Amino acid sequence: MINLVNLPEVVLEKIFSFLTYDSIAQNRVVCNKFNEIGSKMLNKGYYAADRFHGKTLKAIKAKLPRRESERRVHPLARQCDILIAIETRLSMLAMTFTKWMDAKLCCFIPGKVIDEIMRVLRCVANNPSPPRAHEILQELRDISSMAMEHFDEKILPTLKMSMGVPPFLQVIFVTAGSSRADEELTLVPKQRLCVFPLHPSSGTVSVAEFNKLVVRESINRKKIKAQAELISKQANEISELRKHVEEWEAKLRDLTANLIKAKDLPGNSSAIVSTRQSRKRKSEDERIITNKKCKKGDHRKNRSGRSRDMLICK
């Protein structure tokens, strides 16, 4: 009987290729071999999604006009906005995961994020009129944010601990003439070695300086945590503002498109011509009326002047 684990790696990768990336990520817990193959496929899927995004964005930008005013009313403007928003998400995911992926300490864990990115990219590439950016990207924003928060809170501390003890804790308490100190010096790497200067009188390590460094490190950790909370809060505010801006831009594009359609209608041109003609007629009528009034006024003045002259002569 053939066991699935005993199959060649190529065969297992072919079998896994029929699954979604979310299913691949969930099947990593089965055994070590599934974990290795799943990790490779998740990393490949992330880089494939990144390449597919770059290719799609390049193709869309090549079809857009160069002028910014023409781009806003172009039919592909919505696709371009969606792809730019995905680019922002990919860069945030890269800052979170790629450093540890390159160090081979973990893989791209959230497979569901890859599935969602590929779904949105296929929708943009194949659908000539996709939904608005804030509608189609809502799920991607939610799951990617949750994935990054989970990684920073749960997985990252474990990875840092697996890399080794921090340098400020790797202190060797050296005593004069100690043979154990020489053994420890050979075991600890040089870049992680932190030996305090010996006390001039006793020849031992100053523990007070070590305690000061520990206290300083704890204070720095608290500051870093506060800064991280502030950064996450500001990132949430920026995402909310970006969402509002995208909504207003979508409304503005719809209004401009409706305005252009209204201008292109044949009835509107005749209405504009008729309004211009009516305005011209009104101005001509007003001019004729003013001329008549002026003539009447001049005639009255002449009559009054003649009557005065006759009275003077009498």
TrEMBL record:
Coiled coil: 231-265
InterPro entries: F-box-like_dom_sf, F-box_dom, FBXO28
GO biological process, one term: protein polyubiquitination
Alphabetically ordered keywords of this record: Coiled coil
Highest taxon above the source species: Eukaryota
F-box domain ranges (all copies): 5-37
Biased amino acid composition, Basic residues: 294-305
The protein, known as: F-box domain-containing protein
Organism: Nezara viridula
